[in-house]
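Before going further, learn to read the protein records used in this course. The integers have meaning only within a learned vocabulary of local backbone shapes. The record below shows the convention in full.
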Amino acid sequence: MKSLFKLGLAVISLWATSVSLHAQLRGAPASLTLRTGDTLTGVIHPQSLTGTLHTIQFQQASDEAFQNYNPQDVESFQFYNQRYIGGFVAVETSPRRNGFRRTTAALEIDSQWVFLQVLVDAERGLYTYHAPRGNDLFYILQEGEFQLLSFKEYLAVSGKNFIAGPDGEIIANTSRPNSGPPSRSKVLQNNRYKGELHRYMADWPNVVPKLERTRYTKRDLIRLFSGYLKSTNRPFVLRHKLVMPKTSSRANS
């Protein structure tokens, strides 16, 4: 019952956040840069910015219909301080929720065209994509290509009541029917992203102790990149939070 109550609160919170975002972005001026080099100005439909970003709806004039644009055709788009970049990237697709985690540490990769949100805007910046299974994935840019920072949660199962299925999922061991309670399992992590960032930030003397305390979360990774860029005297702009112009805020109040 308690878990259902918490789930209900999470759904309500998500709905309230979505409603607030839609209100803030309704009519927000935006620019869209096509891969042809052309730049369009107009507004983005707020609904386009929720969930996974494979397509956005863009309107150039108020008397025109919204048109769909995809990352194959769009290099980037921006509204207020927010910036997104279209790219063909590796997407880790394995689930991280209880009851659905795999029993193998190997990443499950699918290459897709998506829009990546810029979190830390810099020559050595940080990008994110909210994948279909609800996983937040993070990327760096190397030699003109986006590289996934590798991470996966998986289960180590003990006992004989449940076994790993053909795709790494946990299934009942049919050779032991009615064998009592489920096998115990422990959530482990494939933290390969730490080694990848160690190499990426090799010119930072504090990289090792900082990485030891960095989890695969937006908050921790933004803090890590901010510290790295400050320490190595590289300019950067934080774009992880929506910032509206003060004049616009006063006009809407």
Notes: The chain has two domains: 1-79, 90-253.
